[in-house]
Amino acid sequence: MKKFAAFDIDGTLIRWQLYHAVVDRLAKQGKLGTTAAADLHNARMKWKRREHPDGFRAYEIALIEVFEASFDQLKASDFDIATQEVFDEYKHQTYVYTRDLIKALKEKGYILLAISGSQTELVKHIAEAYGFDDFVGSVYERSGDKFSGQKTVASHDKKEVLERLIEKHQLSFSDSWAVGDSTSDAVMLDMVTNPVAFNPDMALYKEARRQKWKIVVERKNVIYELEEQDGNYLLA
Fold it and tell me: By 3-state DSSP, what share of the chain in percent is helix, strand and coil, each rounded to 5?
């Protein structure tokens, strides 16, 4: 049985949210309706002004609502074009820590798994570019050149997704890894031998401290690895 490492993608490997980038692009192109671009800008600025501690989550919800409300007019082919453009723009905009960890674990023979809330079309591009062995993203079902409105969101239960992948590939928990940046990744980190909370949001940070997981922060060209010791976190 082979060892495995599971990675979130947006904000963990890639320095921005691919889902967001695609929706932003479509909105600016007028593909999501006449008010979509302005609505997203307003929601994003509320977050950037730090008007509320949950501002980023509120922005995410607004973005998803704008995207899904457009399904009666959005062409799947336009979405695919935007997906390719976003991948081409962001594929090399990665964090050094996770990029190097992926490479090191791949060289050691680990099975690499990508689990992301972004659309599976985006995750597939990233997984292939960085040598992941399998991946799961959110699926928006299609009907011809339209989206049907039916969806399966991978980030709703990453524990179940990871369990399926482990069973599928007959993987071992021995010396396993998981890396994520948000609270939806906590259940995945809780399953492995080597959990890493990378640039964590507040909820994941609190859970990491409670569980005594390693915390890694990458800022500019410095990587800070923090490890729990006697109730405190110290630079490793």
Answer: 45, 30, 25
